[in-house]
């Protein structure tokens, strides 16, 4: 008798366990910016990704390359939820460069993100 009850209940238990594993809460997306500044010989290879929290967030971003405090070049873009920027510029070997991205999410200015690297 116990075997029959167990056999009758087991399919329902399996269905319940399997359905509970497939339903997951959506994780919030983290807004922010990431940068990369590398060199291919004497060419600076610059990239940035700026993301909002929601897929409907409007992003405007500008990525700027400096040598010391001297402006070298910049690239801009805009889009919804995520903006990817990329660019290249000839640079001088042995000099240190700073890449900075400034951006807004839905018109609200976010703190700029920057990184430095030296051209070999």
Can I get a quick summary?
With 120 residues, this protein is α+β, with helices and mostly antiparallel strands.
How would you summarize the topology of this molecule?
Layout: H1 2-22, E1 32-40, E2 43-51, E3 58-67, E4 70-80, E5 82-90, E6 96-105, E7 108-109, E8 113-118
Could you explain the architecture of this structure?
With 120 residues, this protein is of the alpha+beta class. It is built from 1 helix and 8 strands; from the N terminus they run αββββββββ. It has one helix at residues 2-22; strands at 32-40, 43-51, 58-67, 70-80, 82-90, 96-105, 108-109, 113-118. The strands form 2 sheets. Strands 3, 4, 6, 7 and 8 form a 5-stranded antiparallel beta sheet that branches. Strand 1 (32-40) and strand 2 (43-51) form a beta hairpin. The longest helix is centred in the first third of the chain and has 21 residues, at 2-22.
Rg to the nearest angstrom?
25 Å
Shape: elongated
- Which bin fits the share of residues in helices? 10-25%
User: Can you tell me the residue ranges where pLDDT is under 50 for at least 5 consecutive residues?
Assistant: 20-27
Q: Mean pLDDT, rounded to whole units? A: 86
Helix/strand/pairing class, anyone?
Answer: alpha+beta
Q: Which H/E pattern describes the elements? A: HEEEEEEEE
Number of helices: 1
Strand count, sense and closure of the main sheet?
5 strands, antiparallel
The N- and C-terminal alpha carbons lie at a distance of: 79 Å
Number of strands: 8
- The proportion of residues in beta strands is over 45%
